[in-house]
Amino acid sequence: MEPHPRDPGRTAWALPCLLLLALPGVCAQAGQAFQLQQPQDKVTVEAGETLTLNCTTSGIAGPGPVMWLKGWGSENKTVYDQNKQDPSSRVTRVVDKSDTDFTIHIRNVQPEDTGSYYCVKFVKGDTGDDEVFQHGRGTEVSVQAKPSLPLVSGPEQRARPGQSVPFTCTTGGFFPGEIEVKWFKNENPMGGQPPQITEGRMKTYNMSSRARLTLQKDDVLSQLTCKVQHPTLPAPLHGSYQLSRVLRVPPSIEVRAEPSPIEVNKTVTFTCLVKEFYPADVSVSWLENGIEIKVENASRPSELPQHLFELRSQVEVQATEEKNGSTITCMVVHDAQAPANNSTFLWISNPAQGALSNGFQMAKDDLLIYIVVGVVCTMLALLVAAILYLIRTKQIKGKSSPSARLHEPEKSSEATTQESDPNNLTYADLNFDKERKSIRRMVEMSQQSEYACIQTNQAPNGDDNLTYADLDMVHLSKAPKRPAPRPEEAGSEYASVQITRK
To answer: For 322-347, how does the pLDDT look when each residue is reduced to its tens digit (9 = 90+)?
Structure first.
């Protein structure tokens, strides 16, 4: 729509009636009888719909077209011209070729069509150009544009559980610029930054909102939602994002083997457990001392109840002697990431060496038992010999010198002053049947604290004519000491009984 060449602010009420110069009253009456009606003050329409602008005229006016202008003043644009109709234009007459109804339709209105529209009657001026004769009050048109469906985008690369990743919700093409955004994770509200609104083309607006979320291991089925509310919307618009698109759960790797050591030339099966990973893109290879082992049957991941994946891969290795101590490695590449691995060792045993080792171990055990039994027997023998030696020594001493020497620790002074206790006697009694003690003698002796008694039934043989009892005590008896056959030793008392050989 090009700007009209004339200033619509100028009026044409003083135009000369070229054909009615003789009738000036008629000219004035005709000008006053013409009326232009534009009843709409404000019109609101949704973008993409058809806008209807009403304009009707009555009365008689000079020759000239009726036009629709957008805006008033030098910046106005012609929307519709009665004399210039373009079939491809979005603007059409409601009543085609009518001289009184100039109502128009504007199809597929857009926010850029927002503005004030005027219905204007033009007449020919002195110069032959069209000049404004009469115009309507103007209709203020407001075109509301709904926001586009929200789009939620995430990071370009996957992230592990525990990492905080950003998400963005965008929408555009809406008018007016007031808009509200809310974030949800599985219908649970979550925080987000205030929306950033910018003006786009054709007087529309765009919006961008950001939010951060910490991923969890069980977010495979979780969904992030951006809800947008706008005055043009009867219900909020939703934009969603599946967290499985950005989540990566690295696998845990475990290598299992049969119990070691393995017998020579047997086949050993190694198992690699690749557990709880996401996504399912994974490859497994086996290495023996860094050299790849070919696996005939490749395993495929299986899905777990929590929608993670696991994989079990096996390889068989011949347990030859030269492979003893080899390192068997399970190499895992998950989702085009750096390889991860786990290893174990192959230990091989020789059956002959094993039997020899077992025999040697048994011989060592038997030898240890023999040594223990020998030591115990030796100790018992030594103990028996010591007992016999002691018995023999006592017997020899008894024959060579039939005497008894009893040692008693020195009694305290308090003990000597106490009354004699017949139940607390220290004595040496050498009984020989030749002369028995009488009951009276025993009673007399029991009244003493200590005594020595020697009895015999026959005379001893040999050259010795003295049999005595030597009690080496600090205090032997309360009775007066008897004369000793030899000088007393320090700290000793003697009781001596002599028997004359018959």
So the answer is: 999 999 999 999 999 999 999 999 99
State the Cα angle at 77 between 73 and 78, rounded to 5°.
120
How many degrees, rounded to 5, is the angle at CA 203 between CA 201 and CA 204?
A: 80
Query: What's phi and psi for 113, nearest 5 deg?
Result: -80, 0
Cα angle 35, 40, 46; round to 5: 145
- Rounded Cα gap, residues 318 and 267, in angstroms: 5
Buried b (16+ CB within 10 A) or exposed e, 463-473: eeeebbbbbeb
Virtual CA dihedral for 75, 81, 83, 87, nearest 10 degrees?
Answer: 120
Q: Do the bridges between strand 91-93 and strand 104-106 make them parallel or antiparallel, or are there none, so unpaired? A: antiparallel
pLDDT at site 456: 45
Handedness of CA 79, 83, 86, 91 (dihedral sign): positive
Sign of the dihedral through C-alpha 480, 483, 484, 489: positive
Position 299: which residue type?
S
Closest CA to 253 of 312, 300, 335, 293: 312
CA dihedral (30, 31, 34, 38) in degrees, to 10, reads: 180
Instruction: Specify whether the CB–CB gap between 116 and 40 falls below 8 A.
Output: no
Distance CA 170, CA 181 (A): 10
Helix (H, G, I), strand (E, B) or coil at 454: strand
Cβ contact 278:306 at 8 Å: no
Name the phi and psi angles at 13, rounded to 5: -70, -20
| Residue 262: strand pairing partners | 348
And the tokens for 475?
A: 């205090």
Centre a 10 Å sphere on the Cβ of residue 205 and count the other Cβ atoms it contains: 21
Cis? peptide before 150, omega within 30° of 0: no
d(CA 465, CA 501): 6
| Distance from C-alpha of 222 to C-alpha of 241, rounded to nearest angstrom | 9
Instruction: pLDDT band for 480, please (50, 70, 90 cuts).
Output: low
**Rounded distance, CA 408 to CA 390, Å?**
22
CA angle 286, 255, 279 (to 5 degrees): 75
Here the tokens at position 268 are 């050993």
Residue found by looking up tokens 């519709």 in the block: 80
54 vs 80: CA distance, rounded Å: 13
Q: What is the pTM of this model?
A: 0.56
Cα angle vertex 263, ends 261, 264, to 5°?
120
Taking alpha carbons only, the member of 262, 255, 300 closest to residue 281 is 300
